## 1
Amino acid sequence: MTDTTDGRLLAALKAYLTGPRPEDVEKGYFSASAASFVDDLAHVSVAEGVATVDFRATVENHFGNLSTSTAGQIFLLELQALAFQFPEVKSLVLQVEGDCDRFWTMLESSCQTVDRVG
């Protein structure tokens, strides 16, 4: 599963979306969200340099205060960091149920593809 870019990205996203372990919280680590998003992850693929991360509709129920706060921007930056750690990934598309606008609406924005900087 982790011998492809898809598999490695999926593993990284699952680890991040699960949230910090209790022992990590005790050390002061935290996540942009208080809730685990791991069950909201529907599909991850990488094709021709474009990573697509698709969430289930349930993510909208868990997103909560992330939409209008700094936490939302941190969440977005962390997703970008996860995707762009793989040199094969040049762009990132984020979706809910296959709909880019639906994801970005949670961040009070419209659909966009995030490109690697540099």
## 2
Amino acid sequence: MILFRTFQSSTLIRLLEWGSASLETSVNQPALPHVIVALNAAEVDVNSSEWGLKEATDRILESANVSLEDPFISELAAEWRRNGAKIETIRDLLHSYYSSFTIVRIPEKTHYNILYNQISVLSRCINMCCEKSHETKREMRMLSTSDEIGIYVQLAFDHFVKERGLIRPFDFIGESLKLNPIPKDFGDHLMQLILTVKRAHLKGGDRAIFETLTPVLASTLILDCTRRNAKGV
């Protein structure tokens, strides 16, 4: 969540810079982050509908006075288009870097009823984004325990503070394999299985052997990854 008193074109530029830097310096990210912008001390003299999430987001994006013609934004859009993405609006570009983009208006303290309602709206929005992120990570088998999260945060911190940390990407799955390496005898057991099947297929070539073994090897690898809680598998 990001706090701003005013939302200007520079705010969008900053968000796009952060999003671009994040993608360039990390690989195997389990999910794109969600962005919630809380506008502090927002004007109360607006249409009542603009206190809603969708209406506030639409209205402020329209009034931000930012277009795809901006040199920096145009370069980002062109890069995504080269990769086959359809970028027609600023919203499209934002969603290339973030799972969602939401603006919540927070009024001054003197408007207690509106303030209470908007804090409730902000709380529900945060919970909703957390639930979506949790579900996405669960589907990708990238959920971490509370202990693991602390370890990955420390590993990421150690990575990015190094001299070339912002140039060389941080690999979540690579670090997971370091924490939970494949057993050294696992490959030996698989090789023994392959040799046993090869001896049984006296009339079959290597292709026939591996066509027979593919389902067994795949299930064996998945079972091993599940037992080791390997991420992203």
